[in-house]
Amino acid sequence: MTKAVLRHLLFAGWSLALTGSAFAHPHVWVTMTSEIVYGADGTATGVRHAWTFDDMFSTFATQGLDAKQKGVFTREELAPLAEVNVTSLKDFDFFTYAKANGKKTPFAAPVDYWLDFNNSELTLHFTLPFKMPVKAQSLDIEVFDPSYYVDFSFAEKTNPVALAGAPTQCKLAVAKPNETTPFQAQRLPDAAANQPDTMNFGAQFANRISVKCP
Question: Against a cut of 0.70, is the pTM above it?
Answer without folding.
Answer: yes
